[in-house]
Inverse folding.
């Protein structure tokens, strides 16, 4: 059985998401958290970056 490129890409995305979640949990445990307003600003920045990268 071989994986096609779409399945590989989906697997890589899942691994990246899990890695980000692990880092986020580590940050929370270490007390390195953004205040809510800063967190949403960062989300907006990342969304804009992702949107612009698609263009």
């Amino acid at each position: 059985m071989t994986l096609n490129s779409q399945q590989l890409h989906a697997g890589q995305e899942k691994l990246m998401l899990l890695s980000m979640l692990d880092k986020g949990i580590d940050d929370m445990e270490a007390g390195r958290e953004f205040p809510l307003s800063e967190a949403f600003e960062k989300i907006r920045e990342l969304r804009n970056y992702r949107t612009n990268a698609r263009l």
Notes: The helical segments are 5-29, 36-54. The first helix runs from residue 5 to 29.
